Amino acid sequence: MAWQNTETIIEALTTLVGRYPGKKITVVWDNARWHRSKKLREHLGEGTALANVHLVWLPPYAPDHNPIEKVWNEAKAAISNHQRLVFEDTCIGFETFIASLTFSYQI
């Protein structure tokens, strides 16, 4: 996703439901306004395409509870202090680091 807003979040959740039809899906995320919008809430619940999606919000202003913050910190450490000729090389370094990671999805 190039930019996140309510529409792109609904699209992403719809894609997720399409990949796992009939399965209950739990999404844990931060309190970005597009994660809590009225329009999104209208797409959730019984009788909707996203009925099997259960949302869990992290506590506000609690980056220590958000696992992605650890990933960002490791990525920044991996690509910092390297002089690159063009910004694209920095992006490639970041993407290469992220692609090298293996995640444990246990809760």
Automatic annotation (TrEMBL):
GO-annotated molecular function: acid-amino acid ligase activity; nucleic acid binding
SUPFAM superfamilies: MurD-like peptide ligases, peptide-binding domain
InterPro entries found in the cross-reference section: Mur_ligase_C_dom_sf, RNaseH_sf, Tc1-like_DDE_dom
Pfam family, one: DDE_3
Domain Tc1-like transposase DDE: 5-85
Protein name: Tc1-like transposase DDE domain-containing protein
The species this protein was found in: Corynebacterium occultum
